[in-house]
Write a structure and sequence with these properties.
It contains 13 helices and two strands. The protein is mainly α. The protein folds into two domains: 9-158 and 240-327, no CATH class; 171-235, no CATH class. β1 (9-12) and β2 (18-20) form a beta hairpin. The longest helix is centred in the first third of the chain and has 30 residues, at 53-82. It is elongated, with a radius of gyration of 22 Å. The termini are far apart.
Length: 336
């Protein structure tokens, strides 16, 4: 069975300067999104004129995706595991997006607020502006989930008997009641298999190196040495590659549906695509979360993950947009 060994760093110039797949995923999403919005604008299927998509996407990336996504993570998910001490001890954590930690729900809320402000400034329909953005946004979700898989993070729940299951080494330090209980034995096996792991393992035994640092050194070796992967494989549980499930549903399938509706029904009322995005994204997220290892405490008496709970509000927002599209119909009208 495949033991995850992908390197999140594509090119390492120095320890401080690296090109990571996660950042490349965001960049690719913005570039492809701007191109597709220009395609829609040229076909008169978006409220902004051709050529305006680049500036719009750049502003949306900064003020919507990055700020909204990071704030969503730091204000909702991070405190569940680490508390609120960061506010006083290290408030700059709010801006260090390169360290990881983004919430898709926060990014979507950030884009919702940003598009409202942008539409007012440009004098265009807010719902019409959002329709175009919602059509291309799933590709960003697709690229992001692919990057999550490359990083070996946000993995799935145990999946015995699933042929395509994957074993993720990060569970050794992140799943205390599962793989984590075998952390010492797994590190011993890795040290026996590779001299590069043996020294840091001895330092850990002598209390000269903490467990997190030992694991990261082992992981760096494991990505390039199949022998280490085979050594730790017995200590890992096979898990659903839920990042790929979410990428397929929330990204690929959702994009295909919304693009088809936009092109097939050019006179559809403004706001209907935004409503469909919120409802379908929430439905796909709720479904896919049943395969994903919860990354925070369960809510509603342990019946739902945080992602599923937040998705319920997205359904309500989506229904609101669909009702508005019915009661307050309007057509796409591009500004010159």
């Amino acid at each position: 069975m495949y033991v995850h060994d992908l390197n999140p760093v594509l090119v390492r110039f120095t320890d401080a300067i690296q090109l990571r797949w996660y950042g490349l995923a965001y960049l690719g999403a913005f570039v492809v999104g701007a191109w597709l919005l220009n395609v829609l604008a040229k076909r008169k299927l978006w409220v902004l004129p051709a050529g305006a998509a680049g500036d719009f996407i750049a502003a949306a990336a900064i003020f919507g995706v990055f700020i909204g996504g990071r704030m969503g993570y730091m204000l909702y998910y991070y405190p569940k595991e680490h508390g609120w001490s960061w506010v006083n001890e290290d408030p700059l954590m709010l801006f260090r997006v390169w360290e990881g930690g983004m919430a898709s729900h926060g990014g979507i809320l950030g884009l919702l607020i940003f598009t409202w402000v942008y539409a007012k400034k440009k004098g265009v329909s807010w719902r019409g502006l959002g329709d175009g953005l919602c059509v291309v946004s799933p590709l960003g979700l697709l690229f992001g989930r692919m990057a999550n898989f490359i990083n070996g993070e946000l993995y799935g729940r145990p999946a015995d008997g699933v042929a395509w299951a994957v074993k993720f080494p990060r569970t050794l330090v992140e799943q205390e009641k599962a793989e984590g209980v075998d952390f010492p034995a797994a590190m011993q096996a890795a040290a026996d298999a590779s001299e590069k792991v043996r020294e840091p393992f001895q330092m850990w035994q002598e209390d000269r190196l903490n467990g997190g640092a030992l694991f990261e050194r082992m992981l760096a070796v494991q990505r390039d040495d199949e022998v280490v992967s085979k050594a730790i494989e017995p200590f890992l549980l096979p898990r659903h590659p839920s990042q790929l499930y979410e990428g397929l549903l929330e990204g690929g399938v959702l994009f295909a549906i919304l693009w088809w509706v936009r092109v097939r029904f050019p006179q559809a009322p403004v706001g209907i695509l935004t409503g469909l995005f919120f409802v379908l994204y929430a439905v796909f997220r709720i479904f896919a979360e049943q395969f994903r290892e919860p990354d925070s405490e369960l809510v509603l008496g342990g019946t739902m993950t945080s992602g599923q709970f937040l998705s319920l509000f997205m359904v309500a927002v989506g229904v609101g947009f669909l009702v508005a599209a019915k009661l307050l119909p309007g057509k796409v009208k591009a500004v010159e």
